[in-house]
Structures are given as C-alpha cells and as structure tokens.
Amino acid sequence: MTETSQHSGPVLAADGRPLKASLARALRREKLRAMLLIAPLLVFILITFVVPIGQMLFRSVENQIVSDVLPRTSEALEEWSYNDGAAPGEAVFFALTQDMVVAAERKEHTRLGSRLNYEESGISSLFRKSGRKVDEIGEGYADQFEAVNPMLVDPAALTQLFATSAWSEAVASDAELAVTRTFKVNKDVAEALPRASDAFREFAVFNQSVDEKDPRKAKLWNSVSLALFEDLRQNPAATVDGPASAAIAAAAAAVPAFDVEDLAQSFAKIDKDWLDPEVWTVIKRYSPEFTNGYFLNAIDMEKTVDGPAWRDEDQQIYLKLFWRTMLMSMTITISCILLGYPVAWLLANLPTRQANLLMILVLLPFWTSLLVRTSAWKVLLQQQGVINDIVVWLGLVSDENRLQLINNATGTIIAMTHILLPFMILPLFSVLKTIPPTYLRAAKSLGATNWTAFWRVYFPQSVPGIGAGSILVFIMSIGYYITPEIVGGTKGVFISNRIAYHISSSLNWGLAAALGAILLAVVMLLYWAYDRIVGIDNVKLGG
Amino acid sequence: MKTTTTLLATTAMTLAGTSAFADAHMADSMTIVSWGGAYSASQQGAYHDPYMANTGITIINDESSSEAVAKLRAMNEAGNVTWDLVDVEAADAIRLCDEGLALEIDHDEMLAAGADGSTASDDFGDSIISDCFIPQIVFSTTVGYRTDMVGDTPPTEICAIFDTDTYPGKRALAKKPLANVEWALLCDGVAKADIYEVLATEEGQAQAFAKLDTIKDDVIWWSAGAETPQLLADGEVVMGSTFNGRLFSAIAEQDQPIGMLWDAQMLDYDGWIVPAGLSDDRLARVMDYLTFATDTQRLADQAKYISYGPARASSAPLVGDHGELGIPMAEHMPTDPANSKNVFVTQYEFWADYRDDLDAKFQAWLAQ
Amino acid sequence: MADGTSNNAFVEFERVQKSYDGEKLVVKDLNLSMPKGEFLTMLGPSGSGKTTCLMMLAGFETATHGEIKLDGVSINHIPPHKRGIGMVFQNYALFPHMTVAENLSFPLEVRKIGKAEREQKVMRALGMVQMQDFANRRPTQLSGGQQQRIALARALVFEPELVLMDEPLGALDKQLRETLQFEITNLAHQLGITVVYVTHDQTEALTMSDRVAVFDDGRIQQLAPPDELYEAPQNSFVAQFIGENNTLEGTLKEVKGNSCIVQLDNGDIIDAMPVNVGAVGERTKVSIRPERVEFDKTRLKADAHTLKAEVLEFIYMGDIFRTRLRVAGSEDFVIKSRNAPDQTRLTPGQQIEIGWMTEDCRALDA
C-alpha cells in the first residue's frame, strides 16, 4: 500500500502534483507537436470546407437585399396588409419612387427583381421596366417648381440649401472636396424638409461616390422635386434660413395650386402589375432580413398570406427530384454491388499475376477523364450507337424500335454504375481479401452446398465491404452532377443538377443553398441510420 | 519549431500567391470570353492573331459565353472580375447593362469610324441596341435537318418541328426558352406581329408551353451550339435548331447530309461588352483591342471564317470568299435577301426583361 | 499389412497421384488402407504431400490419377459436402459472424435437422469438449485452445465416421498442445471414429496415433505403429526424421544372417543389422539411436567391434546426459545416458571407446 492510495483524493505524482495534471503536462508537448503537424490540413479544411459550408447554410436563410434596396418602401409597407385587397396608398408609392430612383441609378433594382422573381415570376421584368422609367416620375413637379423659381431645381442652389455649413465652407475653399468630402445634411433644414433633404442627400452622395461628380454640377433627380412637393404639401409652414428662404416660401405658397401626380397611376402606366396586391405582398413578405422562403421553396412549398402552402401541382419539382435522386442512387448502388461483387471476388481469389492485371482493368477508368468516359457512353448508348447497332444486328429489336438508352434514367444508371463501380470494387476487394478460403472449405466439409457455403458463411463476412462500398457509391451518386447532365436528358437528372442550375444559371444561390443543405441533411440522416442499423464500425475500407 | 513556421508560411503564401500570381499574369495578357468552336476560331483568325502579332499582347480564350451573365454576376459579387472582354447576345448585353455589370460605351469616341467615313454609331446603326453593346455580327437561330431522313418532302417551313407525323424522330432544341417559345406560338397560330405581346402575358406563356408539350417527349435538349450538328451527323435527330454558322460548317465544310431552313430564322445580334469595374490600365488595353477588332476590315474578315454577317454597314461590301473553300460567303449570310424572306427579329428588350421569368418557367416545365 | 486392400478397409487410396502443374507430381503412387476406428497420422516435412492427400480425401482437391474409396465406395466424384467427413482446420476456421452454438448448429441445419434435436446435439458436442458455458460467445472472444475445442466439437457434432485434422494444434503453445493431444485421442477412441491426422510434429504423431504414415517426396516412406517406426525404421529418411539418430556412412563388407560388417570411410569396422542394403561392396548408411550407444565395455559382447571416440561436449539435461563425441571424423555423434546414481559423467577431452548391440545398429539405404 502506498501512501497516496490511502487518501481518497486524487493520486499524486512524486512531486506532489495530482498525477492527472502531471500526465496532461507531459502529454501536452506531444499533442501540440501532433497538432502542428496536422495544422496545414486543418487550415485547408477550414478554408475550403467548413467556411464554404457555413456560408452556404447562411445563404439559405439570408435575405437582406429587400431591406437594403428598398429601405423606405419596406418600412412604409408595415402599415399595409394584403387583406386590404388593394395596392398600398400614395405614401408607399412615394417611398417606392425614392427607393427605385436610387436603386435604378445604382443599378441594384435588377438584382432585387431577379431575387423576387424566384418567389413570384414576373417581378424581374416589372423591376427592369420600372427602373428604366422611374426617373420620369416627379418630372411635372420639377417643371412647376422651375416655373416658380429656377433656383428650386438648380442643384448648386439646392446643395447650398441642404448642406451643412461646414461642408459648404470646406467646398468653397477647395472645389475638389465637392467630390471627395461626403455630403452632409443640415439638421435644421432636414427638420423643416425631411423628405427633400433625404432625397437630395441620396442624389448628392450618389454623384459623389458612384459617378465621382460634383453634385452641384450634376443633373437633378426629379425625385428631389417630388420630395420637396410632398414636404411643402404636408407642412406648408415650413421655413428655412439662408438665401433659399424666399424661394421655399414662394414654393410653399404655390404648391396647393400644383397639378398633382398620382404616383400609383404613374407606376401603373409603367406596368399595371404595380396595382396588383400580389406583388406587394411578395415585397412585404421578403422584407425581413432572414427568411425560410428558400427552404419552403426547396420542398415545393411557398409562403402565402395564409402561411406556408404547397405549390401548384405543375410547379412541384424538388420533392420529386429528391425522391428520384434517392431511388436512382439506390439502383446504381445495387447495380454496383451485383456487378462489382464477382469482380472483387475474382480479384481476391485469382493468383497474384492475374489479379494484378484485373486490378489494372478495374482502375483503368480512373485514368480517363470523367468527361471523356461519359461522352464515350453517349457514343455507345445513343440510338444509332454501338449497342443499338449490335442489338439490331443480332435481330433482338427491329431497326425502327431501337432502344432508348440515353437521355433518360436508363442512361444515367448505366453510365454512373460504370463510373462508380471502382468505388464499390475496391473496398469490397480489400474486405474479401481478408476472408480466408478455409471458411468456405470448412462450410463445405460441414455439409453445405456451394451456394449455402457462400450465402451463410462467405457473404455475411463480406457485408462490411458491401457496406463501405455502398456508402461510398450512394453518397457519391446522390451528389453527382456531370454524368446525369450529359446522359440524363430531362428524366435522368438529379437534384444536384438543379443545384448546379441555380448556382450557375438562375443564380438563385439561396435556393441552391437550401437544396444543398437539405441534401447534406439527408446524407447525414442516412449515415446515422446506417450507423444505427449496421454500425459504422463494421464498415471496412481495408484489411 | 522551425519546420512548423515554414509550413505555416507556405500555407499562407499559397493562399496569398494565387491572387498575386493572377495579377502578375495579367500584365501582358487579357482574357476574352466567347462561345468556342467554329465561332471562336473565326475570331481568332480575324481579330486575335493579327492583334497579337501587332502588339505582343497575349490573348487568353475563355469559352464561357453561355454562362456569361451568371458568371459576371458571381464575379461582381466576389469583387474580382477576371475577364477583360465578353462576347454576348444582344439580350444579355441589355441585361448586363441594366445590372451595371457592363461598361457603358461612347461608340463614336471609342471605336474606329467606318471605312466609308461614316461615324461608328451611324455605321453600326440599329445594331447598337444598348449603351454597353459593341456589335459584331448578325446571326440567326434556325433549323437543320437530315436530308436522308425526311423522305421526298424536305421541310420548308419552321412548323415542321412540331409536325411529328410527317417527320417522325427526335428533334434537338435549345435548353432555353429563347426561339422555342416564339416558334411554338407562331406554329400555334399566333400572328408574327403579336408574338411578343402574347408572350408577355401569363396565358401566352402557358400557350407556348402547351404547344411545346406536344413534342416534349421527342426532344433532345442541347446546351452548346455544337451539339445539334453532331446529333444530326450521328443521325440521332431528324432535325434540330442551332446557329446558322454551325449549320454552314456542317453542310459546306464537312459535307454532311444536312439541309437547313431559313424560314422564321430568329435574327439576333452578337457583340462585345466590357465588364464594369476594370482597372484603368486593363480598360485602356481592352479599348485598344476593341478599336482594332471592330473596324470595318476586321468585321469583314471574320466572315471569311464563318457565315455570320458583319454588324457594320461599311463591312458588307468587303465580305469576300470563304477562307478555305473559296465559295462566296455573302449568300450564306442570314441577311442575304434570298435567305431573309421570312425573318423573325428577336426582341432584345423583351428578352432582357422576361428572360428571368421565362427561364424559371421553362426549367420548371422541363423538370416536370 | 501396410499396403494393398483388405476387406475391412474403411479408407483406401489406390495408386493415387496428384499434380498441380502437369509437370511435377506432388503425390506419387500413394497406396493406403485403414480400418474403421483407426487413428492414423500423416507425418512429414512441409511439401511432402501429406496435406494434399488429406485435401483429396476431403474432396477439396481431385486426384490426378487413382482412386480414393470410403467404406468401399469410390468418392472421386463426390463433392466435399456430400462426403460426410468432419474436418478440423489448422486455423480452426470458426465462422466469426456466428456464436459458438451457431457454429455447431450449422452442419446440423444444412442437414435439415429439427431445432430441438439440433440444440440437444450441440450441447452434447459442447459437453464432449467441456465448453457448454461458452455456447453464446463469439469465436473471437475465445482463447486459441478454446477455439480448437469448438472446432473439434463442430467437426464431431454431425457424427461423421471419419474426421480429418489438418495440423489442428500447430498454433498452440506446448503445454496446451499436450493436453489437447490427450483429449483428442481419448475422444476419438471413445467415439470410435476414424481419424486422419496431419502434422509435422513427430512427437505428436508418436503419442497420438495407432499408425503413422511418414511422407517424403510424395510417397509414404513407412507406415507403421509408432514403436515400430522408432525402433525399426525401414530407410534412412525415416530413421533421420523420427527421433534423434546418429548416422555413419560406409561400405558393406560382409553379410552373415542377421548381422553384417560395415567398413566406415576412415577404415574402422562396425557391426550392424542389415535392414535395407544392397550387395556387398555397396554404400550404406548405418543408424544408431543415441540411447543405444554403450561406452561401458563390460556391457558389450566380447567380440563386438568398437570405435574410438573423443568427448567434445557434455550437456546436463536433467533426466538425461547428452554427450557429443568425435567419431570416425564426424563431430556430431551424440550419446544419451540416463541420469542414474551409478552413471558415468564424461568430461570433454576424454578418450573413450564406444560400441552397441548389433541389432540396434541398422544398416540402411545410402
């Protein structure tokens, strides 16, 4: 009995420290060294794998574009509801005009249009058309203000009016600063004319930052006049100090007599869809910065005023595609097992020389580019292709009824089975190699027929190899993209082809991310299920 | 410990090096994006080779034009535009211009005047369909067919595509709505003048897809222009749509048993856009190239290699014979009076506005 | 009795030959016949053809020529699973995905025996090897010895009349091996089964078998009960292979009845018993067991020839002494003497004279 073991407390090392701490200290150096060795890989994985996946997951819910591009409109829309049964009122159209003018100048409206088009087809063209013509709205007010006093539409005078005195003085001393020093709004004026100063600030800052122009020399936006009219109409008593005070007072006096422009009608003239509450509800629905819309979309649902609902029958494609992907991947996996097992068995049982030759044949496809292999299948499988020629020559089918082996699911299954076969054969082979032939002999000596010996004794021991191969093949195949794209036509494509389409063509990255996230979840679920049923420890990739 | 530092430094350098290398690489080269195949070859012969010989600048070809809009959007988002010049269809140029992804051009100031003395904008005329667009060629999307698979009555008009009784067999159509929906409506009895008006409505779009439904099972969808000539050559399809230049290559240069229709050819422009956001020195280099590559002689030269019409009026008289075959090229141009009896001019504005909408619907329809 | 057929033969090999490559015979003209209930061991160095013979009997290899009979019926064309022969393999070959009970139950299942009877037979077989408590273990959870017991039980559970064992104890340590040797022979005799046992361990062969067939170069060199094999080897290979032996080479000088005179290469003359020799004047190898060599002249016949020897090494081995001598130019001549109170302990360098009884020194083929 040592002294330490008499205490019930922690075991102590020779120097009196707890043994555990001592051990940890001794191991820390080793661990650190090991960590440094794997650090490059860790960094690599972090940068190329973890970060992109994280970004993808983020993109599937991120939705800042609406509130970024239409900040005033989304705020104004809070009051409005679809149940009103009509398009929102003038206040919202006013906000929309201000937002759209800025967005169109900054060329952001098309991107927003594309974004909202994912939800409601037709919005893209609506935004594009509107962006081209929105600068005309408010033109009437500009003319009428000009008639009152040209100063009211003169950018130089308005700059003087809306800028802080500090900004004006700085610019007066150095004209260069008119471009480089960010325009600041005078607080007093902003209080008297809030909309106009906001509109003018957008105008000035846009000219400075995007066009790199002096706002005093730029062409004034009509939206500024529209905003000034709105300010003076709502607050006829507004006054400002300085040189423009007389002009503003005159304008305030003249405004009640102005011809009023119906903004809703102006927008309706560009496109009557602006009067459709459906469009507005989409904008309102996607105003928040985060959305589950992409995920709903990815499972063939959509947001409606009554909450999530299934899409129309003829627009439901994703669930069908997920299901097809699963089913076809399963078929491919099973074909790989059926075709790969005998080959793996031969590999494991042939004498070394022949086995090596066979192994080279198995690996041969790896040395050819995937694209070349897939294109070769095209030559083989097409209706005037080699296989059809042979079948017709043999008289198995008539020339008129050549088999449809490509541009459909059959083509995808054939080509992908071929491409993924080595991924089944190799793990299977490495497991079969470790099963001594004595087991089969033992079974036969115990009275089992060849089939019983195989099925009851050999096969169960090869299951870990089948498991490893199947996981590999199945997971690779549900993520496959190039081969189905080339030989799958429209009926043999996978969900990954849709993801690729949304990534590279429709640029609906949010939906692509949501689909990808679902695919990832499905794979992990299957992996979990496999672990529960078969046990991942039973998967062997080698001896 | 020293080893580890080196390892970490290497990793960091690899990451940083990629962009540093790209910058250095760009110093004396530019990346020009086009459609590949016979078309890129014609540009190589008419523009790139002489320009490289003159200046010593290396031109790198990228064949991504079919994905140009998507890729430019992505590059813009990533803040790293690696392309210097992009060849796109007219509608895409409008879209890119609307989105601020293409640079607006002052054609008269930046491009060479016509050989006949006209200003650039007069010389190009109507083909300047967007401020960002520098026109190059007029091309058409049309239909080719196997002469040996149509019996004694070769098709003469576009609706043969939908006539599976007279012309049984597969057809190759583009995996995009452009041209397909117009032809569908045309063959469904909509007057040519009304087509875009009808297409702008939900019902009109549904009508087009309903017409396409009738041949959906007989269609092989292509995504690269070279596929249709190949499918025709293999006898996989009885007819298929593609660009007239590709059909010219297959018929005149490769002597395939293929015939082509000019009926209801979809006339369209193709040209350059300069990506927005290039640095000043890159921009200067690109503009120098553009001035050279779009002058009267160069545009006429391109027609030696491929049967597309030059976009400059002043180039038309200079169009000569095929570079190798020696046959006169003018009669193979989509604009030749004999070929343009029934022309369908693509409405770029419509497609710029409705491409997103119709693409989404078309893809959903395909997946059904 | 060794060769040919007899009416009560259970297992018979008749002029059996086997070649794998068509160029070399692995088994050359094998003739063997064994009665029911015999425990026969095939002993020989590796590559001698003994395992091939066993595999032919089991049906995993086909004879290139000749006939193999079981209970009077030719089994050349009967597939292994119909031969009804139990077999124990070198590495046990217990099915790793089945429990012990399932392993044992397997041969009964394929014979379509009912569940109740199966269970009863399995437990009885486990009882025979004292492994009843391990029925639900997996083979990997057992020690080597336990696994071998299970393999044995599995080979016996379907009550075969013939059991083949292919070096079953090769992977076990010495002590365990000895215990199991005893158990196996006991069980075999108890059940009255016929056993063909393959080993390259001669002690195992001698202690377990009724008869031993010594294989070399594809032939049976000698087939005899253990004592006969040890004491009366028929040729120099068997003499060398079984037990320790001293060999002296020389020329046959004279044969008279049950004794002969051999002149060694250095000119010395010795007495021997002619067992397997040619005519006078031909070369021969004489073999003498170390424990039969005498260096105490008083215990030899008066007219016996003796040889001069020099003690090179004396090793104390507990129960015996082992002394290495230089005799007739050879330096590895060994004698063994019992550790008895009156035993002389030789010292290195000592010059002695050695001799033997004529019948202990066998003149064999050269």
Structure characterization notes:
The complex is a heterotrimer of chains A (543), B (368) and C (366). By secondary structure, chain A is mostly helical. In chain A, helix 2 (19-59) packs across helix 28 (509-533), helix 8 (139-148) packs across helix 14 and helix 13 (194-209) runs antiparallel to helix 14 (222-234). Chain A has helices spanning 3-6, 19-59, 65-69, 71-76, 90-106, 109-117, 123-133, 139-148, 155-162, 165-173, 177-180, 187-192, 194-209, 222-234, 245-254, 263-270, 277-285, 293-298, 318-349, 352-363, 370-381, 386-393, 409-432, 438-445, 450-478, 482-487, 495-504, 509-533; strands at 301-304, 307-310. Mean pLDDT of chain A is 88; it is low at 1-5. Chain B is α/β, with parallel strands linked by helices. Chain B has two domains: 2-138 and 270-325, D-Maltodextrin-Binding Protein, domain 2, CATH 3.40.190.10; 140-268 and 341-367, Periplasmic binding protein-like II (D-Maltodextrin-Binding Protein, domain 2), CATH 3.40.190.10. The termini of chain B are far apart. With 366 residues, chain C is of the alpha+beta class. Chain C has two domains: 9-236, Rossmann fold; 244-364, OB fold (Dihydrolipoamide Acetyltransferase, E2P) (Beta Barrel). In chain C, a hairpin with a 5-residue loop joins strand 1 (9-19) and strand 2. The longest helix of chain C is centred in the middle third of the chain and has 18 residues, at 174-191. The radius of gyration of chain C is 25 Å and the shape is elongated. The chains are: A mainly alpha (543), B alpha/beta (368), C alpha+beta (366). The interface between A and C is medium-sized, with 19 and 26 residues.
